[in-house]
Amino acid sequence: MKKYMRISYAFMAEGLTDNIIEDDVVAERLNQKLQLFLDANKVKSYEIINTETSTISYKSTNHNYNLVSMHLAYEL
Questions:
Q1: Which of 12, 35, 52, 71 falls 20 to 30 Å from 5 in CA-CA distance?
Q2: Closest alpha carbon to 66 in 31, 5, 17, 2
Q3: CB-side exposure of 13: number of CA atoms within 13 Å?
Q4: In angstroms, what CA-CA distances link 32 with 7, 19, 26, 27, 70?
């Protein structure tokens, strides 16, 4: 039976940038969280079914942040 999981990483939105280092940091964090999830749950197979980035307004500090989410279908 397939199960579903969302793995997310939030980071501050500091304006437009084409800095590849920032992309690498986000990718590395998502990869670390994915690997931890796979190891902890002894996942046999998985498929990334969707990814998305949302900008979230954080009202208490007047700052926005981005939330990158990776949606998985997996089997144990």
A1: 12
A2: 17
A3: 15
A4: 10, 21, 10, 9, 12
Distance CA 30, CA 34 (A): 6
Which two three-digit tokens encode residue 34?
């994915």
3-state secondary structure of 43: coil
The CA-CA-CA angle for residues 19, 52, 32, to 5°, reads 70
74, 64 Cβ separation under 8 angstroms: no
Name the residue with tokens 């304006």: 15
pLDDT band at 69 (very low <50, low <70, confident <90, very high): very high
Indicate the pLDDT class of residue 66, thresholds 50, 70 and 90.
Answer: confident
